[in-house]
Every structure is written in C-alpha cells, then in structure tokens.
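Supplementary notes for students who missed Thursday's class. We covered one full example, reproduced here. Read the sequence, then the structure, then the short commentary at the end.
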Amino acid sequence: MKANGYGRIMNIASIAGKEDNPTSAYSASKAAVIGMTKSLGKELAGMDIAVNCATPTAARTRIFDQMKQEHIDYMLSKIPRGRFLEVGEAAKMIAWAVSPENSFATGAVFDLSGGRATY
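Structure (token representation):
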C-alpha cells in the first residue's frame, strides 16, 4: 500500500471494545484494535491509506445456535434499537469504508451498536 500510495484497511472490533462486557479479555482485545486503528489512521493518513474500524453489536448468525436463550435475550436487552444487527447492514458500511468513495475518513470507529454505545 505504501508503494502504491493508496490503501484501505478496515479492522473489525466490537461494541465490547467501547462498552463493558462480562468477558474482560475479549473487551480488552477489541479496545486494543480500536486504539491500533486510531494510531495507524494518523500514521498513514498522508499516504492516502485509510485505516478505520467497525464496532458492531451482535448479529444473529449460526453462533446463536450454540447459545442459551437467556444469553441471547440479555444481548438483545442491551441494544436500544430492539433488534440484532443484520450482516448485510455491516457489509454495506464496510464496503463503503474500503472504497475509493471514502476519501477522507481515517482513524474512525464506525459504530454499529444500534444505539448501545455511549461514545
């Protein structure tokens, strides 16, 4: 990317990196992804290499088949929109962020929490 003077990097963190979660190691690792994104975004901005990340909330995927309903209900209770993220919603936002149309945003944290995040 440096050699070409152009690039787009999209890291995927989690709302857990911005808000509390009962699994502290997971939350800490996602907070680290957010911090790395912000640092690299600044470092590479002058080379037209955008580095951003998304912080999605839970999306209903096959992993839900392994969860107890009470855990699913708990996750849903934390989302003000009252529903889980649709995978296609995340895909569309991410596709824009890594496209040439994104000619300005770098070091950004795109919130996909359905209103859960407080910052």
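Commentary. The chain has a mean pLDDT of 95. The two ends are 31 Å apart (CA to CA). If anything here is unclear, bring it to office hours.
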